[in-house]
Amino acid sequence: MTKVNVLVGTRKGVFSLTSDAARDKWAITGPFVGGLDVNHAVMDPRNGTIYATANDPWFGPTVRYSRDMGETWEDAKSSPRFAEDPKPEPGDDTPWFVRESTVIERCWHIQPGRASEPNVMYCGVGPAALFRSDDNGVTWEENAALSSHPTKSKWAPGAGGLILHSVLLDPNDKNRMWTAISAAGVFRTEDGGASWQTMNDNIRDPGAAFDPNMPLYPEVGQCVHQLAHAAGDNDRLYLQGHSGTYRSDDGGNHWTEITAGLPSDFGMSMAAHPHNSETAYVVPLQGGELRCPPEFKLRVFRTSDAGATWEPMTKGLPQEQAFMGVYRDSLCTDTLPSAGIYMGTNTGQLWVSADDGDSWKMVTQNLPPICSVEAAVLE
Asked: In CA terms, which of 88, 101, 265, 330 is 20 to 30 Å from 339?
């Protein structure tokens, strides 16, 4: 029997929801890694392992994983860590924030590798860096080329800090991938991470709105919030940022703004349809200062023509006094023929659409603030 599993990362741990293919009734378990701030939780489709970025306010960030669907959990033997910040000796309970060295402040996003590289995992952290594991998340190594990029002196923190939050893998080329950093922009490698190129052509820098001396389209400095790869064998990417929504048809070499038709040029989350490269979803917010839905109407906007037009999906969603927001990893899809769309809010509501976004149902409203939502289809 086909089942759908949804992993929800929250400020107080991971919750797991399971349903059949109808996606109507859900069983909820958790919290796992209870009490820890989980920016992202994901199931590795290659082996079923669940990974979570477990950020402890006292002992610092770790990667934690479960090989048995959440029954038991282990900490990575060596979680992402800068070379200047050696792992504490056993028994050393000195809190991470008083160590006299450069420390990782938070683990943000976990990305399983391709099917052709069964042991590979990636993790984006703050301050912005990319880590790779070649042993299923047990140990991690920093990508030196990105961390020493020639533009790094121009990277600047956004409201959430200087963070690497998006990792996209080219499904056909094992040497090609993209990352996004707030606030630095999009970077692409075509040699497996040995070198990185900036990919920010035609993306507006929000700072230019406040300082006329700043360039509107700099090489780096853009506050990108989320990246998504379109369905199919193509080079189409979608991007949601601080200053607009964009599409690229050439792997990030150039971006076309597709904000027209949306009620705001600000948003945190974006998802691509799993089967149709023309279709994508965003949840606009009023802006960086008031991160609530425009007009206080919770709406998921869908394009069916690669951003030429947008339509609001409202059926089942609150259209008045909606004061919640959404975080960057809190919108996702599943891969069933009639795609399921999932949205979590920072007020603890989980919404599900089983019909490509046409209509929505609230599964639960009592979770802690939701940071991430990831769906997996289990056969």
From this structure: 265
